[in-house]
Amino acid sequence: MAESLGFPFYVLNLEREFEESVVEPFIQSYLSGETPIPCVACNSRLKFASLDKMAISLGCEKVATGHYARVEYDKANNRYRLFRGRNHWKDQSYFLWELTQEQLSHAYFPLGEMQKEEVRDIAREAKLYTAEKQESQEICFVPDGKYSEFIDRYLDHEGRSAETPGGGDIVNTAGETIGTHTGIHRYTVGQRRGLGISNEKPLYVTQIERLKNQIIVGEEGELDSIEFVAKGVNWVAFDEPAEPVRANVKVRYRHEPAPATIHALPDNGARIVFDEPQRAITPGQATIFYNGDEVVGGGWIVKN
Fold it and tell me: What is the dihedral angle through the alpha carbons of 211, 304, 225, 228, rounded to the nearest 10 degrees?
């Protein structure tokens, strides 16, 4: 790409940092009974943290990436504001809420106003081989999507097989043991398939109890929750508010933002209360708060 377009090409070797900041937290989150989304931390703690330094060393003003998002400078409030991409289906602001004001000041998202096909057309006109490149929907370091198998291989390779979760009980919400599981890292909240349990009504994973090594299952209605707590909250649109904030809140990438009230808590926490119950709010996932298309802030979902 660089050769065909005639610009300098540099390589940053971030293998060690990637393992420490992205892969290891991903492993630990699964071992704790959570379902992590590593792409957020990768953007804020690795990509932008490293590329900003590189850009400054080269005398560059901005770091351009292919995210479908938008950033604008609000001169009146001396603040950088983050917005959803115009193409809401491809929007990637969900993965960028952890960016700091300093990182946003260097960020440039040229695809933010565009549709995917427009981007491909430009690439075709420029005769770039990536014009027809297949899209990846999986985490980059687990391209086959088999997360539990990756964790097993990783721990074995690192000589840490003893950390691999063993089997345990599957328990219903009444506390009755109705089956067995093969390791908590193989399950996620909302999961229905692969439980190996026959029941009159479909059962879903409603909770993962790491300390008890249990998978809790219940009927579909038991997946609904009206509130949850978030940690590591980053307020993007303004500083931490003293009063409750109304916003539309996502609890996973493909979740339709739902109206809620956000109460700031000490130590960068927040309690989010929805107007209506939402399905499968999953510890380890990211939550993001919107006012229209603007990103108000975000955080990490923790167990209530």
Answer: -140
